[in-house]
Amino acid sequence: MPSKIVAVFQNKHFLSLSGNVIMSGLGMLNMALLYRSLSISDAGVWVYFINTLTLVDSMRSGFITTAFIKFYAGSTIERANAVAGSAWFIGGCITGILVLVNIPFLFVQHLIDNPGYVLLIKMFSICFVCMFPWFIATCVVTAEQRFDKLLYIRFVNVGGFTIYIILLIIFKRINVTSVAYAYIFSHFVTSIFCLVKGWARFSTFGKRTWENITELYHFGKYSLGTSLSANLWAYSDSFMLETLIGGKAGYAAIAIFNLGQNLMQTVEILLRSFAATALPSLAAAFNRNEEDSVIYIMKKYIGMITFMLVPIIIFGWLLADLPIYIIGGGKYLHSSAANVFRILLAFAIITPADRFFALTIDVINRPKINFYKLLVMLATNIIFNYIGLLIFPNAYGVTLTTFAPILVGLLVGYFALNNWRKFSFWDTYVVGWRETKLALIGIKQKFLAKG
User: Fold this and answer.
1) Which residue did the predictor score with more confidence, 147 or 319?
2) pLDDT of 312 above 60
3) Which domain holds residue 235?
4) Separation of alpha carbons 119 and 108, rounded Å
5) What confidence score (pLDDT) does residue 372 get?
6) What band does 1 get if pLDDT is binned at 50, 70 and 90?
7) pLDDT beyond 60 at 6
8) Domain count, the chain
9) Measuring CA to CA, how many Å separate 375 from each of 288, 398, 408?
10) Exposure of 272 by Cβ count < 10 A (0-12 exposed, 13-18 middle, 19+ buried)?
């Protein structure tokens, strides 16, 4: 019995899912601490800062992450070392270029009166550098499917940030600037931790080869476009709220929309967790030239996750006001945040298909398709956001239009995969339901065996 329990806790799916649950829980705690401690407009400034930083960071993470896992997973020690060293080289170049771009803005920040822009200019370079080593470490441990190590890394990062925020609140020093410094320090500590543990594989820098650098570059230039476009799509919501509404009202709208959007973490937990475990399986099947297995694995994950989402969506609709109050406090209770959450939950039913179609397209070496798809999604999002904000100059303006780009992305991904290997969209859910029933039967049998 103990050995079975240990096996469950060591299962890669359990580790990935539990890791995302724990980190999302800490993330929601951080969000609650910040939303309750900062004014609505200051919370919007912080969200704008984080969204912009995430967008810029996607230039590095998008270039490296998928390419790294694809070429590192299952390779020989020599090949893995060369890939890791090459990733350090490419990531270092990207980091250096972006820091150099930021430096001139430091000399003109006093001429800017927008608090979101000023915070970003002041903090960007040091934050971007501090994030780099532990980012490489997450690529390494994910490719090695060591989700226990990934959990440690994330816990040091997010858990550390939580502690720093609590200390700021206790000593009554919390404001947007002090929170940014705490955020940077959490990245610094996490990177030192990864370097000391050797998980970042910094020693492989000298083993880089131009062949592997070129290989990562050619794959990464398309996955970069995919990642950048995806994050630009998310960023465009905040940017258009800040630009078209403007001032404190604009930042307040960002805070309200972000509160409803971040409560979607339950959906994201499932998507990120299963995507992390699906990617190596899909890549392994493709590398063995098992095309039918690639499609079946994709169908299984899409269908199972979709059925898992149904009860989450139902309970979310019924209890939307409760999490809004818990996270944001009374000042958000009578805002549109709860309805934003409900609307986004309804749209979430089609996100597993869109997400795993995109993942599979990357695996079969068609990243260019995802790049162009996301450009179309981005254009769709901007156009519909503009129309939505003309009709509803508040958080509803970008919430009600969210369905359009997701649907466009799903359709493009489906037809692109069908050109590679024919399959039925409906069969995706048939396979998912069958696999869900088998999983439930397996769980039931284990419980009966224990009894």
Assistant:
1) 319
2) yes
3) 2-450
4) 13
5) 85
6) very low
7) no
8) 1
9) 31, 18, 11
10) middle
User: Residue by residue, what is the 3-state secondary structure of 170-197?
Assistant: HCCCCCHHHHHHHHHHHHHHHHHHHHHH
pTM of this structure: 0.77
- Give 199-202 contacts, CB < 8 A, sequence gap 24+: 199/137, 199/140, 199/141, 199/149, 199/153, 200/133, 200/134, 200/136, 200/137, 200/140, 201/81, 201/84, 201/85, 201/88, 201/136, 201/137, 201/140, 202/88, 202/133, 202/136
With beta carbons less than 8 A apart as the criterion, state whether 428 and 355 touch. Answer: no
Average of per-residue pLDDT values in the chain: 87
Kindly report the number of other CB atoms within 10 A of residue 314's CB atom.
Answer: 11
Looking at residue 409, its pLDDT comes to 92
CA nearest neighbour of 432 among 311, 305, 294, 304? 304
**47: Cβ contacts below 8 Å, ≥ 6 apart:** 238, 254, 255, 258
Per-residue tokens: 305:
């996750």
Q: What are the structure tokens assigned to 433, written together? A: 């339901």
